[in-house]
Known about the structure:
Elements: H1 2-6, E1 14-16, E2 20-25, E3 29-31, E4 36-38, E5 42-47, H2 55-67, E6 76-81, H3 85-93, H4 96-99, E7 103-106, H5 108-117, H6 119-124
Parallel strand pairs: 5-6, 6-7
Antiparallel strand pairs: 1-2, 2-5, 3-4
Helix pairs in contact: 2-3
Amino acid sequence: MLEADSGLSDLHWRGRGDAARTALVEGQIALRDRRAWLGGPVMVAVIWVRDGPDRVRRLSEFRDRVAGLPDDRAEWLLVLTNLDTAGTRMALQADATARDRRTVVLGSAEISASLDRDPRLRVAMPSVLGLRISPA
């Protein structure tokens, strides 16, 4: 998705898929949906939270994972997640350490929109198509 929407490729990912995967981008990133640029360096993080009935718990887990990300001297933090963007914003605003970071969240709606735009991406990432029906 990052390659299709922002031209990012060959990122050097680190971390674990069950916690957070991160990559540092030295240059700026263009966000297609938002018509915005994030000046580099940018820490990109992918944080997937397991589905479950307790929305508050899921958002709390998300907030804790964001707070635990390395700083890596990044000017911006770009987070991709399976949660809804509005809920993640509220969760991050409730945490003092997360509020101090310049953060952009691409949640389930933004990821779904990216998949809708690009049929090749849908074929490459069929496991992500379920985001539309997943509760936040």
